[in-house]
Amino acid sequence: MPLSGPVVYRMPRGAYFEYAFLDKNKKPFADPDNATRADNPWYGYASAVRLAGSPRPPQYQNKLLGSVERVNLSGRRLLIYEPPEKPQACLLVLDGVAYYRLGKMAHAAEDLWLGGSAVPIKIIFSEPDQREREYRFDSSLEKLILNDIPRALASSSGLGCSAIWGASLGGLAALWISLKYPSVFTAVAAQSPALLAMPGGNDAHSEPEWLLDRYHEASALPEYLTIQVGQLEWLLAPVRRFVATIAERGAVHRYYEYTSGHNWHTWRLGIKAGLLDLFGADKYRRL
Q1: 34, exposed or middle or buried, with CB in 10 Å at 0-12, 13-18, 19+?
Q2: From residue 36, how far is each of 5, 53, 96, 174, 185 by CA, in Å?
Q3: Contacts with 157 (C-beta within 8 Å, 6 or more apart), sequence order
């Protein structure tokens, strides 16, 4: 946005908003009049506005009780978290290293288990090789998930993952994989899914909502979906349309909106809620 004077930006109550300026060479820099820096591990130059009542992501100080194994899969990194107790479920996480290090998802899962809210979960954190390609409806992702990872983990507990999780393009990919293979991945969690992206495209801000049409037409949907988005994202309206579509289809789902944007602040806020949706102890008792 070119600035020629004051700008008024209306935000919801309790909002957390990240922003930066660009100089004449298009290089970003922080707001010199705002000492509050964004809680953003990727963009250290970003400034932030935190309104009263803005929620803060949980912090985890305790060391994990479970174990984490690092696996090299033809140059690709996998982190395998095994809970302290025999797992009752397994989750495959796209952009896994970020979810492990920044999102502290293993800590969140362990915290829920210790509190009796969730069952013990095995988590496979998978890192992409070429993210922009793999997460845009690419067959190489299907091969990785359905063939390469199971073969690499054949010596582990043997528990197959029936749930998949991702954010942004990873959320798009998780929704696509679970739609294409609903008998394999019966549950899916998507945070800020990049629904403005299509096969063969290169702009996740303005392309047609291709996946929404696939969900509208599909003969079978995943058994359970949990969808999250920030109210300050360009993806808010597409995500709302997607949720309306799966609701009209009668899909069992949960939906959350947070007063923040397309960033790790939003995704960290929603991790525990998503894990409870997929692996809540009450859900597994009912089963």
Answers
A1: exposed
A2: 22, 16, 29, 34, 41
A3: 82, 86, 87, 122
Distance CA 234, CA 228 (A): 13
39-96 pLDDT per residue, tens: 888 888 999 999 999 999 999 988 999 999 999 887 788 999 999 999 999 999 999 9
Q: How far apart are CA 15 and CA 232, in angstroms?
A: 8
How far is it, in rounded angstroms, from Cα 244 to Cα 283? 24
Torsion angles phi and psi, residue 30, rounded to 5 = -75, 160
Alpha-carbon distances, residue 119 vs 3, 110, 210, 271, 285 (angstroms) = 51, 9, 35, 15, 10
Q: Which residue has the tokens 């197959």?
A: 160
Assigned CATH topology for domain 67-286: Rossmann fold (3.40.50)
Look at residue 285 in the predicted model and tell me its pLDDT: 62
75: its two tokens: 């140059």
pTM: 0.94
Q: Where are the domains of the chain?
A: 1-54, 67-286
Residue ranges in the chain assigned as alpha helix (H): 96-101, 105-114, 131-134, 139-143, 149-152, 169-180, 210-217, 236-248, 264-279, 281-286
